[in-house]
Amino acid sequence: MRPPIPLLILLYIALSKTQKVVSKRGSVDGCTDWSVDYLKYRVLQGEPVRLKCALFYGYIRANYSQAQSVGLSLMWYRSSGLGHSDFEEPISFDGARMSKEEDAIWFRPADLQDVGLYSCVLRNSTYCMKVSMSLTVAENDTSMCYNSNMRQTEKAELSKSKDILCPNIDDYIEPGKEPDIVWYKECHPKQWRASVIQKRDILSFQEVKEDDIGNYTCEIQFGGFLVRRTTELTVTAPLTDKPPKILFPSENKISNMELQLGAALNLTCRAFFGYSGDVSPLVYWMKGEKFIEDLDEERVQESEIKLVREHLGEQEVAISLTIDSLEEEDLGNYSCYVENGIGRRQATIQLSRKELMYTVELAGGLGAILLLLIFLISLYKCYRIELMLFYRRNFGSEDVDGENKDYDAYLSYTKVDPDQWSQETREEERFALEILPDVLEKHYGYKLFIPDRDLIPTGTYIEDVARCVDQSKRLIIVMTPNYVVRRGWSIFELETRLRNMLVTGEIKVILIECAELRGIMNYQEVEALKHTIKTLTVIKWRGTKSNKLNSKFWKQLQYEMPFRRTEPMLTHEPALDVSEQGPFGELQTVSAISMAAATSTAMATAHPELRSSFHNTYHTSMRQKHYYRSYEYDMPPGGTLPPLSSLGNQHTYCNIPLTLLNGQRPPGKSREHSLEEPHANNAMLPLLPRETSISSVIW
Q1: 157, 219, 314, 493: the active-site residue
Q2: How large is the C-alpha radius of gyration of the chain?
């Protein structure tokens, strides 16, 4: 059926007007050629694409159906190259992968071999018009879902809103149906925040953030194929509304610079530019009212503008002014100018001749001396202890302070009850009882007084402690949480002599903290004790970090101990033996069992209710020897001992008569004969009440 006459007349008029307009475009074989259309078709390999004849979409005022109705035919040609003058050949459509459908060619899907120019020609016997379309088919980037050369680009300002469109997908959406579009960022699904909204073919950002920078890919299903479009989003700072800021030299003031004639000069002007779109920063130097290039001096040069750093479109730039050899005519004012569309700013440097000689050399010398002093002070602060130990080992002499004293240090520590043991308390116990004495005595050769090992009571416990502390050059207090809770320092407050020694500085105190003590009961009293002691050094034991002998802990402890030139002790003998002339020089160490025997007898005497358990429960005979010169004394069979656990965890001191220590029996009837007979032959005296008030768990 032919179209109405008025429609045909309008179509011919449109075609004739178009032909008159494009007569300058060129004619090939009598056909008006519009060359290559501006719209480029770019698809990924394996994606379907519809290549439409551009004549019906901007060149003529008629559609395909109208052109057919007036006897015009549409023919397709292809040139394998992208040049417009390449040889063209008619296209043979197979109807499967590539087919002609009305005014377009469908590729289902496109392949790499389809790259080229496709020309559509609309003609009859008297009329001809032609236009070409470019088709590019490419593969995805390695391990990506897009090709970098086929991305669209979008810019968004920080904190503003931005919509990203899934472009060129109209051919893949069925009329009347909502497209099912999935969005990805960097080819991975993303859990979008609440301010990012997906609506149809748009991904909308209500408030753009800096981490929104990236590649966004939309994906739509079409038949058995996937169609993807990727947009690269760039985020910038908001458009600036201020002029640039000069960072150096100082802005809006004149800076003075003195130079010697003949010296080289390099002045760098640095400035900050806010984001101004695609406008490049404008920075330049002037001398007075002249641009640098107008000076006609090869010695004076201006560099290119250099980008120092950039972030979100904001830039820091620099431009340098160099003078190879300063001459008299070069002196004067040099100004750096910065400009953008908002305004202009400047900074000025005044060059003048330097009158004072050797200023630089003098400043350099003083600077070198200052750096040397700083280096030496830093070296001393970092290695003070090592330097002092080196000096003492090589140039030092024996300590005169306390040379008549028998011990290098008295060790004070609170033992932990077995029922309160934990991993932490076991480590503290091991440090105080094993590690600390072994290193100080066997490695460094010091002689320690350890009460639980070396103390032989001769009077009250407090008097014995005071006497032994007085015979020591240092007092080492191992401060543990148990020591703080049980107020282990109380003995130094009860005895006047001990307190005076601490307050007056007669004895130097080394306080070793084994743990964090803040928050522990009685901690405030510890702080008060530190302020009471005149000569105090606090050293922290840090567990395994302090185990090595080259650690800071042992170096500092050795530094605070008296200086000894003797070689380290390698034997395992006790610190107090028969060869040492102390207050008990001729007496060998009394074993722990003999002390326990004395304790047990004293407890049995003081508590009659324990007698039955002494005689009825335990009948093991024990033979204990004491040595004093050539005497030997055997304990009688009646001196059996109850287990220590039955006496609690308190170790109570008792007085041991010298007649017993000398291997002698007490002569005649005396005060102890008033005690019950089973214990009369034990030669043990119970403690007085005032002597049992202090326990030896603190030593």
Answers
A1: 493
A2: 51
DSSP string, 609-620: GGHHIIIII---
Nearest residue to 42 (alpha-carbon basis) of 107, 130, 93: 107
**Residue spans of alpha helices (H) in 402-495:** 423-430, 436-438, 451-454, 461-470, 481-485, 490-494
What CA–CA distance (Å, rounded) separates 408 from 69? Answer: 122
Task: Look at residues 235, 229, 198 and name the one whose alpha carbon lies nearest to residue 216.
Answer: 229
Sign for the pseudo-dihedral over CA of 422, 426, 432, 435: negative
Q: Which residues contact 313 (CB under 8 A, 6 or more apart)?
A: 236, 237, 275
Cis geometry, peptide bond prior to residue 667 (ω within 30 degrees of 0):
no
pTM above 0.70, yes or no: no
Lowest-confidence pick of 12-21, 281-290, 511-520: 12-21
Mean pLDDT of 13-29: 43
**Residue range 78-104: mean pLDDT, rounded:** 81
Distances (CA, A) of 568 to 312, 386, 448, 553, 571: 68, 19, 13, 18, 9
Q: Which residues contact 688 (CB under 8 A, 6 or more apart)?
A: none
What contacts 248, CB < 8 A, 6 or more positions away? Answer: 268, 269, 270, 347
Q: Which residues fall within 8 angstroms of residue 512, CB to CB, at 6 or more apart?
A: 436, 476, 477, 478, 479, 539, 540, 541, 557
Check if 493 is active-site.
yes
Of 643, 647, 663, nearest in space to 695 by CA: 647
| Whole-Å CA distances, 30 to 19, 63, 129, 608 | 11, 22, 9, 140
Q: Is 257 helix (H, G, I), strand (E, B) or coil?
A: strand
Q: 301: which residues sit within 8 A by CB, 6+ positions away?
A: 292, 321, 322
- pLDDT of 103 reads 93
Q: Given this model, what pLDDT does residue 391 score?
A: 65
Contacts of 356 (CB under 8 A, 6+ apart): none
Cis preceding linkage at 109, omega within 30: yes
Burial class (CB in 10 A: 0-12, 13-18, 19+), 352: exposed
The first and second tokens of residue 323, run together, are 């003078």
